[in-house]
Structures are given as C-alpha cells and as structure tokens.
Amino acid sequence: MTNIASAIRELHEELPSNVKLVAVSKFHPAEAVMEAYRAGQRIFGESRPQELYAKARELPDDIVWHFIGHLQTNKLKLVLPYVSMVESVDSLHLLEAIDRWGRDNGRITDILLEMHIASETTKQGFSKEELMSAVSLAASCPNVRVSGLMGMATFTDDEDVIRKDFAKLVAARDEIRAGAGLYPGLPVDFGVLSFGMTHDYRIAVGMGADIVRIGTLIFGERTY
User: Fold this and answer.
1) Can you give the CATH number for the domain in which 171 is found?
2) I need a labelling partner for 60 at 20 to 30 A (CA). Which of 41, 105, 163, 164 fits?
3) pTM
4) Tell me: the pLDDT tens digits for 36-45?
5) Domain count, the chain
6) 2 has pLDDT over 80
7) DSSP the chain
C-alpha cells in the first residue's frame, strides 16, 4: 500500500461520516490523484484553473472537483464546467461573473463565500461586513447556489489563535442563519462550513466543520 493510499484510508476511518474530505491535489500529478482514487477518495481540490482543466479531462468522470483557490473571471471556462463547487468566492465581482456564466450556459453553480478570518493580510476573503453584502447578492443570483462559508485560519502552532479564527467563521454562519429572513433567496440548508487543513483539521472537526481540505498529509510536499 502506498503512503497516499494509507493516508486516505486512515483519514476515512478517522473523520466522522458527516465530514467531507477534500483531498487537495494541487501541484501533484494525475498519478498521485489516481492513487488516492484507488484508495476510495472521490473529492479533490484544485487551485489553478489550467491544472484543474487538464486533470478533469484526463481522470475518471466520477471524481468530484472543488475549486479552492483565487479564481480570476477570465478563467471561468476552465473551471466551472468541471467543478461541483467553487469554495473560494472572494469578491462581488467574481460572484456576479459566476452567475452570468451560469445564465449563459444553463448551469447553477454551488459556491461557498470565503471569509477572511486569519491574521495574515495576504489571505483572500471577505471581511465580516463585506460578507453580509455578498450573502445578500448571492441570494439574489439565480445561477448561483450559496451553500455556506469557507475560511483559512492563521498559519500558527498556537491552537488558541486557530480556534479564535475558526470561531469567527462559525459565528458568521450562525448570524446569517438567524437572519435568513433578510435573504429571501438563501437556500434553506445554507450553513456548510469548509475549514481545517493538514495542520489544524482535528480542531476544525471538533468545532463543526462540514468539509476539511487536506493536502500535505495525503500527498506530501508539492512536486511542481
């Protein structure tokens, strides 16, 4: 059994049945994806449009792709036909562009709105105030289905900092749910939370994550 297969099987055994594992395969070759696939993994995350496009056309049709990186609007055609979800909608401009693409192509795209919860300013995402405007806009976009929120904690070994970052995401989700009447187009099952990566996924699971995005633990360090 390969290291990749072992990691997948151990994670499937460890994670609660209600938590989806997104195996973050960005920067890893198709052969590595297939090792995880043969071990039973079906949901994979990519962050570069060209890489996702190439893999989606080469690999099995029953793979479920999530886009998890910053997406430029001029790259939508490389991503949206192939993904089950865009987890990283981080601007109103991108939100509107996805909705227009869906209108023109007869598709409804599942999305998560990315909230900036970390201390690093280099990370993407809406501020708390911007997030509420994004929810309102997304709820009125007929070709977008806003399923919930995504976030990335500060990269640190300090678990208290990580927990405080994750708590911001949980609180924002709960506030939006409580005020659902303000957003008539919000899906009734809104509330999916995607947070937690290789170094902090156990904390995330304990705090109610619905999706964890794990790459290095499965595939090792990036290969290209």
Assistant:
1) 3.20.20.10
2) 105
3) 0.95
4) 999 999 999 9
5) 1
6) no
7) --HHHHHHHHHHHHS-TTSEEEEE-TTS-HHHHHHHHHTT--EEEE--HHHHHHHHHHS-TTPEEEE-S---GGGHHHHTTTEEEEEEE--HHHHHHHHHHHHHHT--EEEEEEE--SS-TTS--B-HHHHHHHHHHHHT-TTEEEEEEEE---SSS-HHHHHHHHHHHHHHHHHHHHTGGG-TTS-TT--EEE---TTTHHHHHHTT-SEEEE-HHHH-S---
Asked, for residue 224, whether it belongs to a domain, the answer is no
In this prediction, residue 121 has a pLDDT band, given cuts at 50, 70 and 90, of confident
Residue 186 domain flag: yes
Q: Give the structural domain span for 152.
A: 3-219
In a domain, 147, yes or no: yes
